[in-house]
## 1
Amino acid sequence: MLTARVIPCLDVKDGRIVKGVRFANLRDAGDPAERAAAYEATGADEIVVLDVSATLEARKTRVATVRAVRERLSIPLTVGGGVRTIDDAGALLDAGADKVAINSAAVEDPSRIARIAERFGAQCCVLALDAATNERGTYEVVVKSGRERTGIDAVTWAREAVERGAGEILLTSFDKDGTRSGYDLPLVLAVARAVRVPVIASGGAAGPEHLWEALRAGADAVLAASIFHDGEHTPDDVKRELRAFGAEVRL
Amino acid sequence: MVRTGVANLASVLSGLRKAGAEPHVSDDPAAVRAAPLVVLPGVGAFAAGMESLTARGLDLAIAERVREGRPLLAVCLGLQLLLDASEEGPGVRGLGVVSGHARRFGDHAGVRVPQLGWNRVVPGEGCKLLREGYAYFANSYRLAEPPPGLACATSQHDGPFVAAFERGPLLACQFHPELSGAWGIELLGRWLAAGKEAAC
């Protein structure tokens, strides 16, 4: 039986870790390869690196960062941020990513999902879906780090992306991200029910009980950044608590 | 390490280096025949994987190694390429050096496909390299029935399936040892040691 995965996320800008509240107010928090290795040593099941820098120059740094992280890591590595083309995906996979996450570029042109999945396999192709609640009380896809609302229903988009070949969904609540008030559970529930591929819940975790709530809502994996960065918890600590709650984890 | 053209090699190369090897990449059948140890990686689809092997004559070189009992490590799709066929590529023949058909995980509630994550591996009778522990899997197809004549380890996802099999210096893993943390790197180390011994 598959265990629930606990995934520390590194938001990286220009080769350094940053973490902000609601995708803004970035502050420096260290070297990605060092930090990734420390997370593996303390029980991380996987690492996600999201590159939040946007310039062409920074993309070259990104490949170097992925290479450095890979050399230290013997667990899976997912990389996202600015992935648009097959070449972008290929460069990251060549550098040592095991999966690539595609976000805004997939919303712009959904056929990009199929192209990446056909070339590299569905298990390599992660849809990063950022969602926010709207005035109708449903969830809407947001892009460009949350700056732009699309009017697209999040659950419908999740289904479509899976039909096109996405092998996993990294589901981030824009409303909850960085707030430390818990994951958006109705969002997790709706998406996890709508698709057969694994769903990673992201955005809002402050402690193990939040991670447990997301797993109970149907998430297969839980992603968190600040609770690990600040040294409050290690992945192993969190997993011991999850096991006490009743989750199956790798310890 | 065999360059199949469809696989991502960086993680496997990095894992082998961590286990103490100095891997070289090649798509030359003569090199695959001559190498003391060979790794057949595998990410991608069954039909594309077979096509890239046969296009270069690598299929015969790899099949020969298995028949002669020479050291080979097959990873993920690499394991499935050793079989007769896979539901993923109807009508495409596998290397056929291990009998069996890979089939897709069933369409049942609660069974996520692809299987992405850590699953418990339990070695069966006769396993020497494989030990109990958690391994990282990334697959939609699997071999459900243990192949005859090989020592098998099993895991559970939509029922039991073959997580890995071994026979002497032949080791085939449905999981990714290179992504299975210290447990996986240790397994690579045991295979390297067994392979070096057999190659002498």
## 2
Amino acid sequence: MFQHKSILNGGMLLNFIKSLEVFKRYTYLIHQLVSRDFKVKYKRSILGVLWSVLNPLFTMLILNLVFASLFNMKSYGKIKDYSVYLLTGLVLFNYFSEATNLAVGSIVGNFNLITKVYMPKYIFPFSKVLSSALNLLFSLIALYLIVGVEALRGQVPFTWANILLPYDLVMLIIFAIGMGLILSALTVFFRDMFYIWGVALTAWTYFTPIMYPIEIISDHHSWFTPYLLFAMKLNPMYHYINYARTIILFGNVPTLGQHVILFVSSFVFLVIGVLFFRSKQDKFIYYI
Amino acid sequence: MEANDLIKVENVSMKFNLGNDKVTTLKEFFIKKIKHELKSEEFWALKNVSFEVQPGEVLGLVGTNGAGKSTLLKVIAGVMKPTTGNLTRIGTIAPMIELGAGFDMELTARENVFLNGAILGYSKNFLVEKYNEIVEFSDLQQFMDVPVRNFSSGMVARLAFAIATLVAPEILIVDEILSVGDAPFQHKSEQKMMSMINGGATVVFVSHSSETIRKICSKVVWLDHGVTRMYGEVNEVLNAYNSYCDTI
């Protein structure tokens, strides 16, 4: 609708402005798709949206039981409060996992629309990442419930540093958008991505210090320990989670370096995602 | 190129790889790569199609099944980018191809009006303003809060048609759409289409009915296996097309 010219002439800046105009025109569609996802997700379930809060709570309870009691993580080094430590990592990683899992199939799953109606194709992975972000907000309720309880018990500090959390979340969402764009485009050409990504996410979960402290690795003296630590620090998820823990668990303001790392990793992936998606999107219709 | 062409199709070709040899899994890819079998069968849905449509003109598209009519409409609508060739299009466009493609069966008719409207690029305010008009035109007052999965296909089609014809676009693309719903609704939808066409819209129109084409079109393109077989005056092309159809 309302497309004025299908052949765009002019420079990059003009293209960019055009893209922004298109984006603005379709914000209502994004809003509609996100609210559709949300409505359909909890349709006909009795507890409905409450599940978004309960889910992370139950997962935390189970993992807490397993790791704190069986593997005795509580007594390990720096972890002050294992429930909060665990839940912080869990909530952020669950968001990433859900967002990318939905994004993987977002183009393939909407082929019936893509081949029939004109619209910017990135809207599909983008709206999936945003739908998951809505869910993340509800998970945060669960997180802050536990943080509140633990703060009252004097286990964790509750400081003004918490107002920095939105920065972490926005950077994480931008990172997820970048990943979502790459994954959704790849899946069009190789449907195996569905399964590969499932496995990759499992590996990634264990590669990120969610359930265990990073000291478990640094204290383990072996020739490959430095390499493993280095690889871990290349993992963007480690930094998003670490930032949140700095705030929530320790009540500290993260360093400038931490801010920069988040910013750089988010935008590097966003730019890669956008460029990759743009270079592939016209070929999608040949792989139906 | 004249400045006032609304649609200009220049040497448009559209290539598809036929299904059977398409590689969509990694395993297949590597096996075929090793066996040097990665050549896939090509199929040209459109080959060097060219024509122009001037403002207010109504262009008919005829051709047997699989001639490339729908592909051409999708190229004009911007859904597909041509493999080679150029498409220039100026003005607002309402593609009436596969109506209701964006419906979510789990949502109610009311929710679908807004979802489908958003897919077509309408704004929220516009949809709120036109909501009653849609309900009235589709004649589904009692059913607006019912999930669409409980609708009959005729009801779905009526709702989709009502949403798609909301605006008075400069370019209208129509794919065999006049046969929607029951007889009274068909009459109503045909009237609506005619009022849009008579309102000065530039139209590209696919139909298998020579009668309808004679009634509304000013020029006709005859596509045959992706190639323009003929392009010209209505009667001339239709006569040739009909006598070709009689021979097969």
